[in-house]
Design goal:
Number of helices of chain A: 12
Helix content of chain A: 40-55%
Order of helices and strands of chain A: HEHEHEEHHHHHHHHH
Oligomer: homodimer
Largest interface: A-B, 30 and 30 residues
CATH topology of the largest domain in chain A: Glutathione S-transferase Yfyf (Class Pi), Chain A, domain 2
Number of domains of chain A: 2
């Protein structure tokens, strides 16, 4: 594809008060674009800005705009990028790798990301744009059946052991491979790394023990593509040794 | 490869008193051979027969013999089969699919198979060749720090809910795909199906609720390759509705 086409991609993302990208699903697409060597124009939105920007058509980011295509949902976007830019490095070598990464996502989202949200939902509130906080609290507390963010997270440290245990398959795999994808990173790495980017951007409680063997993979993954993730701090993820 | 070469494969497997194959890892290789359209001569061993047969070189099955090659460990064998029979349907389309299936195995073995062993260790004992039972009990109870198989499994029904919950990623994935591998089965399916074959061959306590949505995948998977798994009963896996 011509460079002009590449630069015609807009990525709508969600940012915190400090400007950091704050959605693990947007991070997936940031990685996907970098994997394919595509640049984009980032459009930074607040939580409440999403519905306003798309007139209610999309309620979540990532959203990309590419020519006449306006599309939400990170999986749809990832698959679209392989179709739209077939001559660029592929995100998925074929249907079997795609299916396997989908399975990894089913596991990782239900076992890990869900636990992370439970730990960090109040931290997201506190780090959000001030104009977003009332909306965020109201929408999240509705899902908590009226419980406040404060009471929901009061005992959150007690959930850390289960979360750390749930990462065991990643540790076992990364004892054999440099990346989840093997010698080189694939979309499973981006799914995993994106969740840690998101956690690192809001966490006031460290997620991992100081000697967690995941650190080597996180260091490698955050440094990918010229350090695209360098602005996401890795230190908040780790307890002090 | 010539048909003669195909038929030169011997698969050493572990069988129960009733002759059924009793190792989830042997089942993986049974599926792998079928996937590649290879036939083999099955050599049925008891637990205590394994060390005797290989003079202590191998303590576990599967073991395959192919020409001068004698090899244990299901993963080594699976990768060997793709190298030795490159013109047959591949088990792994490339390194990314291989790495992803390895990751699936790291999750499935630690989260699911380990829980299954906890449920069924006494059932394996009871279904084993009579000559194996003393050895099996002694070796397993040693790992249980002296606890008997009976006391270890006395409250086993209380572990069923956690095991069923741990299968949620499979259910989520199979709501979108016919197989874990997508439209067609891959080695991740064989890893999963093999564990259920093994459980079905020994279970005196049903593993799954009558309406578990995994049933459609299990039916499809057990019927693969001309019903190679038809001799493994599917009904013992399910509570009566």
């Amino acid at each position: 594809m011509a460079a002009a086409a590449d630069h015609s991609i807009k990525l709508f993302e969600l940012v915190l008060e400090d400007g950091r990208s704050a959605s693990p699903f947007v991070w997936r697409i940031r990685y996907a674009l970098a994997h394919k060597g595509l640049t984009c124009e980032a459009v930074k939105l607040s939580f409440t800005g999403i519905a306003a920007t798309f007139g209610g058509r999309f309620k979540t980011v990532p959203v990309i705009e590419h020519g006449a295509t306006l599309m939400a949902e990170s999986w749809d976007i990832a698959e679209y990028l392989d179709r739209a830019f077939p001559d660029r490095p592929r995100l998925f070598s074929g249907p079997a790798e795609l299916a396997m990464v989908r399975l990894m996502d089913a596991w990782f989202t239900s076992e890990v990301i869900r636990k992370m949200f439970r730990l960090y939902v109040k931290d997201v509130h506190d780090a959000a744009h001030p104009e977003d906080r009332a909306y965020f609290r109201q929408s999240r507390e509705k899902n908590l059946k009226g419980e406040t963010l404060e009471s929901f997270t009061a005992e959150r440290a007690t959930y850390l052991p289960a979360l750390r245990t749930s990462l065991a398959p990643l540790r076992a795999h990364l004892a054999k491979f440099a990346y989840l994808g093997g010698d080189t990173p694939n979309y499973a790495d981006y799914i995993g790394l994106s969740a840690f980017h998101w956690a690192a951007s809001v966490a006031t409680l460290p997620l991992l023990a100081p000697d967690d063997t995941l650190r080597a993979w996180l260091d490698r993954g955050f440094a990918l593509y010229g350090g695209m993730g360098r602005d996401a701090r890795i230190n908040p993820l780790f307890e002090r040794g």
